[in-house]
Design goal:
Layout: E1 12-15, H1 30-38, E2 42-46, H2 57-63, E3 66-68, H3 73-77, E4 80-82, H4 89-94, E5 100-103, H5 111-119, E6 123-126, H6 141-160, E7 168-170, E8 173-175, E9 179-183, H7 187-198, E10 202-206, H8 213-218, E11 222-223, H9 227-230, H10 245-260, E12 264-267, H11 282-287, E13 293-296, E14 313-316, E15 319-322, H12 332-350, E16 351-352, E17 355-356, H13 363-368, E18 369-371
Helix pairs in contact: 1-2, 1-12, 6-7, 6-12
The chain binds nicotinamide-adenine-dinucleotide.
């Protein structure tokens, strides 16, 4: 078969296999493929693309996709490319000029990829740039992946610490519940609190945005109130804003005792476009009991703990500090299902009557499309 382009005018959505080391997720799961096929769209999957998420080629074929094994063929054939990780510049070079890309793409880090997307006339929809509004909620892949990460962080801690999470009263003695402190109660933090509580831990959290106090309490956690001393650090779009080092120094002093008394600390504090704030310094680690665990979900953004080694686990002063990378990928089946749902929502938003309809007056597209190419030709 000629691999150039399908001869008809049907819009082709392509899902290449992820090449980023350790990436197990896939951009579309068979359920979403079926929905897109029902809309009259053509879907082409690279053979093996769903393997890490336990979706085999046969399931995709049954859902109505065409499966391609030729290297680069998916990129060359698709009008729309759906990916998880940002494409590499060499992957971008394979794309059709005017193609529409949907993936994660960090405007503050992926400069080379963005330059190459611009050069090749690709319109790139980035999940990192979707506004946090009610209208865009179904496209909020960042929140979906933060939910996965928050849940998994607790499991990592439970698997590392040498003690139970719940209070146990047994004939062999009474064991007190683990104390879990979460720093940053956004999407990941709230999920971590809820998960730790379901395992029986006693939980507490702080956030630079005092407005989240009610949400912290709603998942059964104690609220570490820093607002009186620090004031609000609420920024735009529901995020925290970057504060100066003096703010963070005072914050560390305020939470020092809570961290020292915790068995598990989960750091999730991030500020968009900036290095994650250091909220656990070396002295605070030294003050923790030996055997305690820190899970630093902000590791990829530099880490909330001064001693975190991104992508690695280290033990300092008897405390194990985990700095996991790409946590969502380790729960690839459900992470892919959630991600695929958000990709499906984007595609249904931009495809009208079987063709791409990109209206850049729309606030979601204006914010999320980091590059704009010429309209795709089918
Ligand atoms: P994030 O991953 O950028 O940060 C995680 C948390 O860390 C945030 O709650 C932030 O306030 C907190 N933080 C930052 N600096 C801190 C510091 N110095 N000390 C303590 N905590 C600190 O954020 P996120 O979880 O992706 O989202 C943040 C918020 O955005 C959500 O809680 C929600 O209010 C809002 N949101 C809204 C929508 C929507 O309306 N559709 C969707 C998703 C999120």
């Amino acid at each position: 078969m000629d691999e150039a382009v399908s001869g008809d005018q049907v819009l082709t959505i392509g899902v290449p296999a992820e090449t980023h080391l350790g990436e197990n997720r896939v951009a579309l799961v068979p359920d979403t493929v079926e929905q897109l096929a029902d809309l009259g769209l053509s879907v082409v999957m690279e053979s093996g693309a769903g393997k890490g998420a336990s979706c085999d080629d046969e399931a995709y074929a049954l859902a109505g996709a065409r499966v391609e094994s030729r290297p680069g063929a998916v990129y060359r054939q698709a009008d729309v490319i759906a990916k998880v990780q940002p494409p590499t510049p060499s992957e971008v070079a394979l794309m059709r000029p005017g193609a529409f890309l949907v993936s994660f793409l960090d405007p503050s880090r992926n400069h080379e990829t963005l330059a190459s997307l611009t050069e090749h006339g690709i319109t790139a929809f980035s999940f990192n740039a979707v506004p946090r509004t009610t209208r865009a909620q179904s496209m909020d892949a960042m929140s979906a992946m933060s939910t996965v990460a928050g849940y998994k962080a607790v499991l990592l801690a439970a698997d590392t610490i040498g003690r139970f999470f719940p209070l146990l009263m047994t004939a062999a003695g009474t064991l007190p519940p683990a104390r879990v402190v979460v720093i940053g109660a956004g999407v990941a933090g709230l999920q971590a609190l809820a998960t730790a509580r379901r395992l029986g831990a006693v939980t507490a959290a702080c956030d630079a945005r005092p407005a989240v106090a009610e949400q912290i309490k709603s998942v059964g956690a104690g609220f570490i109130d820093m607002s009186v001393d620090l004031g609000a650090a609420e920024g735009q779009g529901g995020y925290a804003r970057e504060m100066d080092e003096e703010y963070y120094r005072r914050e560390r002093d305020l939470i020092r005792e809570h961290v020292a008394n915790a068995d598990v600390v989960i750091g999730t504090a991030q500020v968009p476009g900036a290095r994650a704030p250091i909220l656990i310094d070396e002295g605070m680690v030294r003050d923790m009991r030996a055997g305690s665990v820190i899970v630093d979900l902000a590791a990829e953004a530099g880490g909330n703990c001064e001693l975190t080694v991104p992508g690695d686990a280290v033990t300092r002063y008897g405390v194990t500090i985990l700095g996991p990378a790409n946590v969502a990928s380790s729960l690839a089946v459900d992470a892919s299902r959630m991600y695929s749902h958000t990709v499906g929502a984007v595609l249904k938003y931009v495809i009208k009557d079987g063709a791409l309809d990109l209206n850049f007056d729309d606030e979601i597209l204006r914010a999320a499309c980091l590059t704009r190419g010429a309209p795709a030709t089918t």
